[in-house]
Design goal:
The chain has 246 residues and is α+β, with helices and mostly antiparallel strands. The protein contains 7 helices and 5 strands. Helices cover 33% and strands 11% of the residues.
Length: 246
């Protein structure tokens, strides 16, 4: 009995943990009422032990060995209820602080694990008590990693405004004597689709990949009409405006 007493937690810190430890130590063993009387007398003293017996409905066991040999199982629920009421768990929020949450931890599994831990440590359900719920939530929040202050706020990529009739564009044109394509214009857009435009003076459709819209700030310049250059269109041909798609 002395060795068992030393292995059990302090009952004054909470009967819930003490009861769990006792049941683990005595698993598979049959306890008698006399065993509990001896254990409680050593822990609490004779007077306090007798008070617990009376409160648990064991008046017949007070000051007499009459029930010492009886099985404790039938009195177990009443005894544990009395001890939990008289020795409630002392909650230390610091000791119940949640484990640090890592980047790879599954949030649902983490909450389930912490909830189970709190039930074992306190003997109470954090979800069924307003104070316990508040303490539990606080411990979870404090365990969360600090926000990454250096992370740049995520911004959505800018979507350019569509080219519409009335806009002016420069066109990428090719001529044999040039080593690289050049842009000419600006030309006024007369028709437009999401992918191509037609400019004033030409029936050719130009893909937007070959166009650069003139910024609004300089669109006050007079637009250049393809017909202003006789015999030369935006496609660089000498045959005038053609048809088709570039």
């Amino acid at each position: 009995m002395l060795g068992l007493v030393e292995r059990l937690p302090d009952i004054h810190e909470g009967a819930g943990k003490w009861i769990r430890a006792l049941e683990e130590e005595t698993m598979g063993k049959l306890l008698a009422v006399g065993d509990l009387k001896a254990l409680l007398a050593r822990l609490l003293g004779m007077a306090r032990m007798e008070e617990v017996l009376m409160k648990s409905g064991l008046q017949a066991a007070v000051n007499t060995p009459y029930l010492d040999g009886a099985s404790f199982d039938q009195f177990r629920p009443a005894m544990w209820r009395t001890l939990r009421e008289d020795y409630p768990t002392k909650i230390d929020p610091k000791s119940l602080k949640g484990e640090e949450v890592g980047d790879t931890v599954n949030p649902a599994n983490y909450l389930h694990r912490q909830l189970k831990r709190w039930k074992l440590e306190t003997g109470r359900n954090p979800e069924g008590d307003e104070l316990m719920t508040t303490l539990f939530r606080t411990s979870i929040v404090e365990a969360m990693p600090p926000p990454e202050k250096s992370r740049e706020p995520e911004t959505e990529p800018e979507v350019p405004d569509p080219v519409v009739p009335g806009d002016q564009v420069y066109l990428k044109v090719f001529r044999r004597k040039w080593n690289e394509p050049r842009r000419e214009g600006p030309y006024k857009v007369v028709r437009a689709t999401p992918t191509a435009v037609q400019v004033e003076g030409s029936t050719t459709w130009y893909h937007l990949n070959h166009c650069t819209r003139v910024p609004k700030i300089i669109t006050s310049l007079p637009p250049k009409n393809i017909e202003d250059e006789p015999g030369a269109g935006p496609n660089g041909s000498q045959e005038g405006p053609g048809s088709g798609t570039v």
